[in-house]
Amino acid sequence: MVCPMSNTKNAAKYCGFTLIEVLVVIAIIAGLTTISVSNTTDYVNQNRVKQVAYEFKNSVALARSEAIKRDKIVRLRHLDQISGKPEWMDISAGWHIYYGNSDEPPVIFKYETFSDLTVAGDASVGVEFRSKTGELKLSKESSSKTVCFTGGGITYSVEVSSLGIATVDASDKCIQ
Question: Which domain holds residue 142?
């Protein structure tokens, strides 16, 4: 800051910052803003992936309870499955929970994910729950199914046990 002494004869009567000082302050503020925006974006993306993993866990619990309550097979499948024979496809765009095998099965719940999500694992195409017990329909050689949601540099795994109970873990446990 330049400020002439007030007791000098020909000194100017104003005081202020030099252009260099103002530019340095602006550069520091710009640098700090860039760092904070970058960290905020990563944090938001990681929380979106976490939210999808927990939403899948909650959807598994809902599908299991509906299978027990309705005494019918309940499926959690990809969004494009609307009618006809159930097909197993990737659930990265989202999923819905439904029961029955009619041309227009009743949908219990629908969830859409965000676009930058990668899904892997042996449950990435959906799961099916038995009527009455709500147990997971599995092949003879497996005791559980796992789905991994990846995005924003982080992966969350959801493991569904043979009893139809899901747990979430912040790691990649998927079969690639």
Answer: 19-169
Query: Longest Cα pair distance anywhere in the chain, in angstroms?
Result: 99
Residue 14 within any structural domain of the chain: no
The CA distances from residue 77 to 2, 38, 89, 105, 115, in Å, are 70, 35, 7, 12, 18
Per-10-residue mean pLDDT, the chain, length 176: 55 74 93 81 84 93 93 85 56 84 77 82 83 86 86 88 91 66
Q: What is residue 57's predicted lDDT score, i.e. its pLDDT?
A: 94
Domain at 46, CATH number: 3.55.40.10
161: left (phi over 0), alpha (psi -120 to 50) or beta: beta
Amino acid identity for residue 173 in this structure: K
The residue whose two tokens read 């299978």 is 67
What DSSP string describes 146-173?
EEEEEETTEEEEEEEETTS-EEEESS--
The answer as to whether 123 is a domain residue is yes
Give the total number of structural domains in the chain. 1
